[in-house]
Amino acid sequence: MTRHSDPGTGHTDAADGHAVALRGRLRDAGLRVTKPRVAVLRWLAGHPHSTADQAVSAVRPELGGVSTQAVYDVLRVCTAAGLLRRIEPAGHPARFEARTADNHHHLVCRHCGRTEDIDCVHGTAPCLTPSESAGYAVDEAEVVYWGACPDCRSAARPTGDQLADPNRGARSGRAPGR
After folding, report:
1. Are the C-beta atoms of 176 and 170 separated by less than 8 Å?
2. Residue range 36-80, pLDDT digits in tens
3. Can you tell me the distance from the alpha carbon of 12 to that of 16, in angstroms, rounded to the nearest whole number?
4. Largest Cα span, the chain
5. 170 CB-contact burial (10 Å; exposed 0-12 / middle 13-18 / buried 19+)
6. Is 109 in a helix, a strand, or coil?
7. Of the candidates 105, 111, 6, 97, which has an alpha carbon nearest to the alpha carbon of residue 51?
8. Are 75 and 113 in contact (CB under 8 A)?
9. Measured between alpha carbons, how far is 79 from 65 in angstroms, rounded to an integer?
10. Which residue, 95, 92, 123, 122, is CA-closest to 110?
11. Phi and psi for 18 in degrees, rounded to 5?
12. 3-state DSSP helix/strand/coil percent for the chain, to nearest 5?
């Protein structure tokens, strides 16, 4: 497919096609189609695990004077509608992703917060079951793997013992993952 760029917006035909699909997803979820919603969903599709502040910074040039609160509202509404997933790694800001239709987990760097998707080896949710459900109808299990990303490992060169010790933050008065 030939990609034509609109000099006024920098959008390509492929980007416009993606925007049409996003508009359809918004309508299917019972939401009004607005420029901020389309812009945030489009940006998060290409930048998973972004914080709200990163989304604000990314869509503001496209939308002009969009307020920070407007982007936070988009994130909240789209998460409630199931179009986005909010993940909250301990000690790091909440992150958002558009990958919602499958059962996957996350790998989070303790140092910088970089987050990667990890597919669940057991398939459909819940991939794990608790030893006791206390009467709950369990429909999802969220797993977060913690470690040091390659960039942080290169910069700090921590030893294997430092990464494997789950109590290392407690001794310093900080919670693990901070």
Report:
1. yes
2. 999 999 999 999 999 999 999 999 999 988 999 999 999 999 999
3. 6
4. 59
5. exposed
6. strand
7. 97
8. no
9. 23
10. 92
11. -65, -40
12. 40, 15, 45
Name the phi and psi angles at 137, rounded to 5.
-95, 95
Core vs surface per residue 99-111: b (16+ CB within 10 A) or e = eeeeebbbbbbbb
Sheet with 104-109, strands from edge to edge, namely 115-119, 104-109, 144-147
User: How far apart (Å, rounded) are the C-alpha atoms in residues 98 and 107?
Assistant: 17
First to last CA, the chain: 46
With 0-12 / 13-18 / 19 or more C-beta atoms within 10 angstroms meaning exposed / middle / buried, residue 75 is: buried
DSSP letter, residue 11: -
d(CA 134, CA 136): 6
Report if pTM > 0.90. Answer: no
Q: What distance in Å separates the CA atoms of residue 96 and residue 126, rounded to the nearest whole number?
A: 21
pLDDT at 7: 40
DSSP-derived secondary structure for 54-73: HHHHHHHHHHSS--HHHHHH
